[in-house]
Amino acid sequence: MELILDCLLDALLDGAKLLPFLLAAFLLLEGLEHHSRAWIEKLFSDKRHLGPLWGSLMGLVPQCGFSVMGANMYAGGVISLGTLMAIFLSTSDEAVLVMLGSGTAVGTILPLLLTKLVIGLFWGFLIDLLVRRTPHPHHHEPHDLCENCGCDKYPGILRPALYHTVRLFLFILVFNFAINLLISLLGEEKLSSLLLGGSAFQPLLTAAIGLIPNCAASILITELYISGGITFGSAVAGLAAGAGVGLAVLFRMHGCLKKNIQILLLLYLLAAVSGFVIDLFV
């Protein structure tokens, strides 16, 4: 019982340090999402051949809003498959916020972001080059960025920001507690072996975890990476596969189930291969 209380207290203290930072970050991001949508859709429509570039850059913003927007625009025929994959692969979800708030050095975060940017650019342009298919419009009305995350019922910017802050804090609390408890009970070596530590197959596992359409997956992967439980390549694989709720929106808005499954499998394959290649050379 004492061990559980100690792990819970450590998780609470670590999470409490993040709260002011998370609230400030979400206030900024909510303002950006509320005022940028029309401009972004026009940018992708006017400069469609540069779609993977814009998608990769916007995917780096630490929120799943752009992956939701990407899924909606793909379903509506606004962007290509390569652009959609660039957005999904580069999407950072809340991972960057967790790392910044935990005091992780910028020197650790920047390589992760730049790697995901390069992965999104490379695969996005390659897919568009190979497919050579102009997206055809479907008759779907555009939806708000936060429609599928639960904060769309709150008006304005402050209440959605508070909603995201509390939600993310609870996720972090749960995962910090679980990781602290596992390390205390099993030891770091045993935990690492369960995560295929030292195995070239670890990116396959983390990429599969990353596909879970929830920010909880990216938080788990980030916490494991910070604690040294997974390699850099495995972290990249998991976070590249993690498109937040973007995948869930794609399955809801895009009518072809077979195509959606193909996109999911392609995302997993590209993320896992990228992580595997990185671990070979890093």
Give your account of this protein's structure:
It is a single chain. The chain is an all-alpha fold. The chain has one domain. Helices cover 74% and strands 0% of the residues. The protein has helices at 2-46, 51-59, 65-75, 81-90, 95-101, 106-131, 158-186, 188-194, 202-210, 215-226, 232-241, 246-253, 257-281. It starts with a helix and ends with a helix. Mean pLDDT is 76; it is low at 134-145.
Strand pairing plus helix content: what structural class? mainly alpha
Helix content: over 70%
Q: Over the alpha carbons, how many angstroms does the gyration radius reach?
A: 19 Å
Mean pLDDT score, rounded? 76
- Major sheet details: none
- What's the number of extended β-strand segments? 0
- List SSEs in N-to-C order: HHHHHHHHHHHHH
Number of discrete helical segments:
13
Indicate the proportion of strand residues: under 5%
Number of domains: 1
Overall geometry: globular
Chain-wise SSE layout:
Layout: H1 2-46, H2 51-59, H3 65-75, H4 81-90, H5 95-101, H6 106-131, H7 158-186, H8 188-194, H9 202-210, H10 215-226, H11 232-241, H12 246-253, H13 257-281
Key structural traits:
single chain, 282 residues, mainly alpha, globular
Briefly characterize the structure:
With 282 residues, the protein is mostly helical. It has one domain (2-281). Helices cover 74% and strands 0% of the residues.
